[in-house]
Design a protein that fits this description.
The protein is α/β, with parallel strands linked by helices and 458 residues long. Helices cover 48% and strands 12% of the residues.
Length: 458
Amino acid sequence: MGLRNVLVVDDEASIRHLLSVILVDHGYDPRAVATGEEALKELAVREYDLVLTDVRMPGMGGLGLLREIQRTAPELMVIVMSAYGAHDAAIEAMKTGAYDYLSKPFKPDEVVLVLRKAEERERLARENRRLRTELSAGYSPEHMVGTSEPMREVSRQIRKIAQQKTTVLVQGESGTGKELVARAIHQLSPRAALPFVAVNCGAIPPELIESELFGHVKGAFTDAIRAKKGLAVEADGGTLFLDEIGELPLGLQVKLLRFLQEEEVRPVGDTRLRRVDVRVIAATAVDLRAAVAAGRFREDLYWRLDVVGVRLPPLRERREDVPALLDHFLARFRHLRPELPGLALSDEARAALLAHGWPGNVRELEHAVERAVVLADGPVLREEDLPETVRATARPATGPAEAGAEGSLSVKRATRALEERLIRAALERTGGNRTRAAELLELSYGALLYKIKEYGVG
């Protein structure tokens, strides 16, 4: 975590040696060169977190090097060093964009103090970027909407495991919100102020995944025109989320296993290892046990990932959460139609949404509400504004008998007929007490009321 890789630039061999010793003693990984020209070559080949350079050197001096870094890598932090009588040059460097400066001769503690200040500044900058990203995405841990028992169990698990660095495997169907679980674990952990880096293992071409995860040096392969920091290094100190881990090629599974065990990365084409401190959360929509049995996934990697497993239930197993999810997404998408204050769902639209089976889970529901908001002609969202797949579910059969008629193979009609019969039976058993009926049916009270209205049950 922090500014580990430091490039030292000084024409005096004794200074380069002294700084290298100080940096190594305090946990940094330094590399030292004698000129500004050498520094630029080194920066083109490898990624560095910070440059510590003398101001006055033969050839390209510290100011020239700083200006070139500002042009090619403006986020790279630079600290300049100046001997007695070169303070004007140091001040000019600060105006040009250097973070700080050291006066020669210096004590080891002075070097460490300046570097620690630089690390704190970098930490605050990363936190600021993280907060801006989450605000723009409208994300918060509370976005995990649901009070059903399956979701309460997921929440309990998240709170238990968030404080530990343990590797987590989140399993669930597509659209159930696996990344939200990963983000919630990160936000509730001591790493919340540090990066959350997500990578979809199934969306990156197999030949590029290694370089995306672990980085590469310049010239490592044909298109490597400059060094690149891998996502594992970007996540240093924070959380690395590996989505669709089941799509990872077998060859890279070995390297991922080594990374999880050793907590070190080796950029493609490099000879050096870099130690990183990351928490790994993996997610998959496929059955990894079946993939192991079929030889598509390494068994040792599976057990290394599944230290703690979180199963995210599909929406059909927590239908009582649908009303709350509808209200949540409706509130979330109101900003899309500021000219329509008071957006609300019509009774028919809400009934259709409650009746749908949601094979695409929460993501499908989210998109359905967003579509309705975008297409609405007025403040009341109608059934006609919903996707055809949702409207088809809501189309009533001509009568209860038809839905269960012999020869009908419609699961949707049969489901509606079964729900109606169960609701009538529950109300009859409880003498019309809707609260007790909801408990028997394992539905929320609100969901039962909507279904009673939808089916015309008295």
